[in-house]
Amino acid sequence: MIREGSAALPTAMTMTRPIALILMMLLLGPMGSLESRAQTPATSSPEDLRLAQALLCESIESFKPVNRSVVFPVSQGTVMCFTDFDVVPRETEIYHVWIKREVLVYRKRLVLKPPRWASVSSIKLREADKGPWRVEIRDADGRLYATLRFSITE
User: Taking a C-beta distance cutoff of 8 angstroms, is the pair 111, 95 a contact?
Assistant: First the structure.
């Protein structure tokens, strides 16, 4: 079953954006690093696509994730996957692949544009969605950038 999701969101390069990112990284520490969440971290050279942040949250406000979590009650109504690529050398397709108990539920194609781009996809929650889930962040060649695991509960 295919589900409808959100489109990619551009991020503006401003003087406050880099400062805010540095502060967020300092505050989140290891919990905020991609390495703590990626099943198989992608290696990259300077000209390659680079995933700076991948997380699940309740909503997006002003291009920022709100209420990051790994457990979502079905009453929440929505789960969002937020990805931020801080190096985008050329227009690139990526996919947010939503999987419930090893069954593909939803695959959202997103187009990233240079020099930096954030993307969002989401699912609407139903009673039948309870259980373990994961979202895989992949490029068009199937290269895995991150795996985000979460659960839907009562």
Answer: no
